[in-house]
Amino acid sequence: MQFVLEPNNIDNLMEQFYQNCRSQRCNRFQPRQTKWQHTINLTGIPTKPEDFNLKLENSNILTVSGKSDVTKEQPNGFKVFSTHNWSKQINIPENVDQTTLSAKMPKDTSNIILTISAELKKDQTEEAPNENEFEIPIEKLD
């Protein structure tokens, strides 16, 4: 008897496998995180790179602010020009190496997403112990 998998079932089987793996806290297939990342979608308030202002306050709060100039043409022939000043505060986790903080946005202006990222502190990138497991020391014999 021959075992046959249909091509459209392979994706479904793989998804079930990874779903089971995630539900069992299986981290063998997940790479260790070494980077923290936060994104802000600014499509509704388009802001030029030179109009951004980022300040790190109180050692763990990053304030992101900017100015957005918007022009709207009304059906009756009027043009409305407005300037919007906005700000957002982001809590930086304690395990983030703040010396590596950086902010980037794509040059494509159709989808304005500001990405703030940083490396995790070196001692934080090691695998955290699972709360549902006991760590048993291994005795080394020479």
Write up this protein:
The longest helix is centred in the first third of the chain and has 17 residues, at 7-23. This protein has one helix at 7-23; strands spanning 35-41, 52-57, 61-73, 79-91, 102-104, 113-119. It has a domain at 33-124: Immunoglobulin-like, CATH 2.60.40.790. The protein contains 1 helix and 6 strands, in the order αββββββ. The protein is mainly beta. It starts with 6 loop residues before the first helix and ends in a 23-residue tail after the last strand. The protein has a 3-stranded antiparallel β-sheet, with no helix packed on it. A 3-stranded antiparallel β-sheet has the order 2-3-4, with no helix packed on it. Helices cover 12% and strands 35% of the residues.
What keyword list fits this structure?
12% helix, 3-stranded antiparallel beta sheet, mainly beta, Immunoglobulin-like, single chain, 142 residues, 1 helix
CATH topology of the domain at 33-124: Immunoglobulin-like
CATH class category of the domain at 33-124: Mainly Beta
The biggest beta sheet is recorded as: 3 strands, antiparallel
The percentage of residues in β strands lies in 25-35%
Which of globular, elongated, flat, extended, rod-shaped describes the shape? elongated
- Taking all residues together, what is the mean pLDDT? 76
How much helical structure, as a percent, in the residues? 10-25%
**CATH level-two architecture of the domain at 33-124:** Sandwich
Order of helices and strands: HEEEEEE
* Radius of gyration from the alpha-carbon trace, in angstroms: 24 Å
Number of helices: 1
Q: Uncertain regions: pLDDT < 50 for 5+ in a row?
A: none
> How many individual β-strands?
6
Q: Going across the major beta sheet, what is the strand order?
A: 1-6-5
Structural class: mainly beta
Distance linking N and C termini: 53 Å
